[in-house]
Amino acid sequence: MHPASKPVIDLLLNEPLAPHTSWRIGGPAKQYFRPRDNAALQLFLQNLPIEEPLFWLGLGSNVLIRDGGFDGTVIHTLKMQAQIEIINQDPQTGLVIRVDAGVPCAKIAKLACKQFVVGAEFFAGIPGTIGGALAMNAGAFGSETWQHVVAVEVINRRGEITTRTPQEYQISYRSVLGPEQEWFLAAQLRFMPGDQEQASLRIKELLQRRSATQPIGLPSCGSVFRNPDGKYAAELIEASKLKGRRIGDAEVSTKHANFIINLGKASARDVEQLIREVQQIVWVDHAVRLQPEVKFVGIE
To answer: φ and ψ at 299, to 5 degrees?
Structure first.
């Protein structure tokens, strides 16, 4: 094998994770690995001790890394290939695309619109990658990721790549349960033909609504809590008069109550305490237990 064709391994020790999350919060990872492609990722996993704790990171938009960091290996897929490929396009069966896990969701919405298909517009409102969207069945404006999944490609701890169908997963609101110790590498998504102009207008409308109602541009994780059955978390939090509530530099957004923003120097402890406080007050006021969407990772 020519040296230039060998997989590139980017491995850092004690790498601070705050710069790699949308909250700009987080302690260091014991090991931090950035694969350039699937070959590098497979090689790395094949040589990683099976007992080593692993956490996978994309855009870092739905995670709170605690201040003590992660005592294991973080695999950051941001530098991996992030391509969208058209697999099939048919007037009857629709458009099927293959999307690498590192592709930002907004790119899917734009491509679908250009290809005269509809149903992908909601992806414009998801501030993460398709890998993260697959892991939690991310959604926006009433639509969800797995409504469009035809198949997924996954990798396990031994570096083996497998293709699976949606039938092999338990899919529900913001929850995806499947084989353990596997992670998403890519997905095939299907969208049906439709009016390009209407799709384009829909994307613009959704982005305008997002900009008008959410604290875009400020460090946050996106929505903090799942919407309870028949209710909206933001409405319950606002009804409890919690907009603007602060602990340290963590604040419940005054623009959208289901966002917690980092005003500059918030710690993970500040954010986590504020989340618990919001949960407690909403429970007392409304007898509703808010469940976080955000994933808590690492050592306090």
So the answer is: -105, 135
Please identify, in words, the CATH class of the domain defined by 84-213. alpha beta
Note the pTM of the prediction, 2 decimals: 0.88
Could you tell me which CATH number the domain at 233-297 has? Answer: 3.90.78.10
Burial class of 72 by CB neighbour count within 10 A (0 to 12, 13 to 18, 19+): middle
Q: Return the sign of the alpha-carbon dihedral for residues 126, 129, 130, 136.
A: negative
300 residues of the chain, pLDDT tens digit each: 444 445 445 899 999 999 999 999 999 999 999 998 999 999 999 999 999 999 999 889 899 999 999 999 999 988 787 899 999 988 888 899 999 999 999 999 999 888 888 899 999 988 889 999 999 999 988 899 999 999 999 999 999 999 999 999 999 999 999 999 999 999 999 999 888 788 888 888 888 888 898 998 899 999 999 999 999 999 999 999 999 999 999 999 999 999 999 999 999 999 999 999 999 999 999 999 999 999 999 998
Q: Where in the chain do CATH 3.30.43.10 domains reside? A: 3-79
- 3-class secondary structure, 203: helix
The architecture of the domain spanning 3-79 is 2-Layer Sandwich (3.30)
5 contact partners, CB below 8 Å, separation of at least 6: none
Total count of residues recorded for the chain: 300
Q: Which residues are the active-site residues? A: 174, 223, 293
Start and end residues for every CATH 3.30.465.10 domain found in the chain: 84-213
Partner residues linked to 111 by β-bridges = none
